[in-house]
Design brief:
With 129 residues, the protein is mostly helical. Helix 1 runs antiparallel to helix 2. It starts with 10 loop residues before the first helix and ends in a 7-residue tail after the last helix.
């Protein structure tokens, strides 16, 4: 595995950022009555995946804290999937758009699960004095 010096280099972060950007663009066309509810919720959930990945990266000194933050990313990604399904059912996005993003989030969640399973590889070893 190549040396990664920033969470911004992680494929999972880049995929989550791309998905959040796509969701932002799609939600621009949601109805005004959804502006403070569905639009806000799906944007927050999708962005939270990215933000929590950054926070997890800074918590790598403590394996349990790192895993906890990655678990939050998983939860936010799954919440985003629920909002995508609701957006499709309400007719705000097409089935094709919903399916594409759902598949993106399925891959993102898979990558997050692998990060938890291999957490020891990601944590910063304690310095030896």
């Amino acid at each position: 595995m190549p040396q990664i010096s920033s969470y911004k280099e992680l494929r999972v972060y880049q995929a989550a950022l791309d998905a959040a950007e796509q969701i932002f663009e799609l939600t621009k066309s949601f109805s005004l009555e959804e502006r403070c509810s569905m639009t806000d919720q799906i944007r927050r959930a999708s962005r939270s995946v990215c933000a929590n990945l950054g926070e997890a990266w800074r918590r790598r000194r403590y394996k349990r804290h790192f895993i906890s933050k990655i678990n939050e990313c998983e939860s936010d990604a799954e919440e985003t999937r629920v909002w995508l399904e609701l957006s499709c059912r309400c007719g705000y996005i097409s089935q094709e758009q919903a399916l594409g993003l759902d598949q993106d989030y399925d891959r993102i969640i898979g990558q997050l699960v692998r990060m938890v399973d291999t957490a020891s590889m990601w944590v910063i070893p304690p310095s030896k004095k």
